[in-house]
């Protein structure tokens, strides 16, 4: 039950959230699979990275579970591209890991740059909604506050991964520009498609 001061979401807002949760679920599935594929070759060559790889994997697994639960709770249809992203993410993780530590880290740097911005846009949109509701004397629902908090936390964790990648020589990858350029373009395309299909 909503109290009278809580404004229900408009249809456009509802649709925005459906799209956002669908694309976030797909992105986090991809993140889990990338680290899953990268970890064995990377840790074999660089045992010192075992804890870092596990730390990032564990956070991605938590993000994935978070969006799985939200998608199920709001009965949102997962993207039809799900099986395609599974294959693409595993291939990306495996191939960058085989290229070496620097390429694997450049992959994380590229992905997290796009995903950090992606979550940031969602945080800004929800924050604006909350401000509008409060400006009209209404009350932001607990659910909306919680979602905003969740998105902020996940965004910060993605940006933490980005920092780890740079600290671990992502910029030394060769060819750095081509590799990160291709991965960033791929991420943007995957986001665009997952929001629509
Ligand atoms: Fe994530
Ligand atoms: Fe991440």
Could you give the topology of this structure?
Elements: H1 11-45, H2 50-73, H3 82-99, H4 101-135, H5 142-167, H6 176-196
Bound molecules: fe (ii) ion (2 copies).
Protein traits:
binds fe (ii) ion, mainly alpha, 197 residues
Brief overview:
The protein contains six helices and no strands. With 197 residues, it is mainly alpha-helical.
The hetero molecules present are:
fe (ii) ion
Give the tally of structural domains.
1
Number of helices: 6
> Averaging pLDDT over every residue, what do you get?
93
Span from first to last CA?
32 Å
**Rg value:** 18 Å
Structural class: mainly alpha
Explain the overall architecture:
With 197 residues, the protein is mainly α. It has one domain. Helix content is 81%, strand content 0%. The protein has 6 helices and no strands. It has helices at residues 11-45, 50-73, 82-99, 101-135, 142-167, 176-196. Helix 4 runs antiparallel to helix 5 (142-167). The longest helix is centred in the first third of the chain and has 35 residues, at 11-45. The radius of gyration is 18 Å and the shape is elongated. The two termini are 32 Å apart. The mean pLDDT is 93. Bound molecules: fe (ii) ion (2 copies). The site of one fe (ii) ion has 6 residues, from helix 1, helix 2 and helix 5.
């Amino acid at each position: 039950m909503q109290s009278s001061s809580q404004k229900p979401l408009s249809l456009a807002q509802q649709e925005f959230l459906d799209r956002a949760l669908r694309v976030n679920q797909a992105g986090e599935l991809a993140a889990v699979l990338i680290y899953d594929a990268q970890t064995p070759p990377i840790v074999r060559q660089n045992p010192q990275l075992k804890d870092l790889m596990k730390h990032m994997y564990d956070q991605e697994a938590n993000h994935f579970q978070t969006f799985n639960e939200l998608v199920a709770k709001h009965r949102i249809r997962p993207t039809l591209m799900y099986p395609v992203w599974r294959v693409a993410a595993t291939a990306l993780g495996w191939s960058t890991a085989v290229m070496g530590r620097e390429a694997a880290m450049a992959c994380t740097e590229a992905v997290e740059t796009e995903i950090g911005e992606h979550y940031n846009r969602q945080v800004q949109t929800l924050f604006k909604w909350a401000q509008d509701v409060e400006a009209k004397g209404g009350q932001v629902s607990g659910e909306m506050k919680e979602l905003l908090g969740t998105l902020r936390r996940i965004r910060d964790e993605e940006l933490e991964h980005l920092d780890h990648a740079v600290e671990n020589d992502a910029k030394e990858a060769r060819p750095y520009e081509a590799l990160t350029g291709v991965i960033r373009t791929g991420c943007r395309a995957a986001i665009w498609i997952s929001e629509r299909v």
